[in-house]
Amino acid sequence: MKTDQRQQLLLIGALAVVGFFAADKLLVTPLTSLWKKNSARIVRLQQDIAEGNGLIRRERYTVQDWDKIRQNGLPRERAAAEAILQNAVDRWEQESRIKIAGRKFQERTFPDDEYSTIECNLDASGTIESMTRLLYAIEKDPLPVRMEDLKVTAKDNNGSELLVTLRISGLVILSKE
Fold first, then answer.
1. What is each CA distance from 22 to 10, 11, 30, 35, in whole angstroms?
2. For an engineered disulfide with 124, which of 40, 134, 156, 164 has Cβ 3.0 to 4.6 Å away?
3. 152 and 114 within one domain
4. What is the pLDDT of residue 78?
C-alpha cells in the first residue's frame, strides 16, 4: 500500500471516528434524553388519567358525601354551632359513660378559605371501655367532626382509670353553595 493511500485511509478513519463522536453528542445523546423525559411524562400522564377516571367513577359517592357534610354541618352563627356541638358532646358522654370534667370551645377561622371550625377541648376520665365507646360515638356521629389531638394517661397505678384529653374540630361551611 502506498503512503498516500494509507494517509487517506487514516484520514477517512479519523473523520469517521470524529463523525460518530459528533453524531453521538449532537443527535443520539439528546434524543435519548428526550425519549426518557417523554417516557416519564407519559407514565405520569397515564397515572393522572387513571386517577381522573377513578374520580369520575366515585363522583356520585363523593357528591353524596359532600351533600351529607353540608346538611349536617354546623351553622355559621357561633352560638348555634357551639350549642349543637355541646349537645353532641353531651350525647357522646351519655353513650360512652365517660365523665367529662372540662369543655372549652373556640372558633378558628381561615382567611382565604370557605370554612371555619369550632374546636372543643375535652378533659374526661373513665375506663378503657368508656374511652373506646367515646371514640366510637364521635366517629359514628353524623356531625362533620374530626379528632385533632388525643392524649391518654393513667390516673392510677394499674391503669384501670384513665384521663383523656381530646380536641375535636367541627366544620362550619361558609360558602353559599
1. 18, 16, 12, 19
2. 164
3. yes
4. 84
Q: Which residues contact 148 (CB under 8 A, 6 or more apart)?
A: 119, 167, 168, 169
Helix axes 128-140, 78-96, angle to 10 degrees: 140
The model scores a pTM over 0.70 = no
pLDDT at 176 over 70: no
Q: Which residue has the cell 355541646?
A: 86
Return d(Cα 166, Cα 73) in angstroms, integer. 20
Cell of 115: 370554612
Cα-based torsion angle of the residue sequence 62, 66, 69, 75 in order, rounded to the nearest 10 degrees: 170
Angstrom distance (rounded) from CA 71 to CA 145: 13
Q: State the Cα–Cα distance between residues 92 and 72, nearest whole angstrom.
A: 17
Task: Identify which has the larger pLDDT, 83 or 112.
Answer: 83
Identify whether residues 90 and 121 lie together within a single domain.
yes
Look over the chain and give the mean of its residue pLDDT values, rounded to a whole number. 87
Least confident of 13-22, 80-89, 92-101: 13-22
Assess whether 86 and 131 both reside in one domain. yes
Same domain, 44 and 129: no
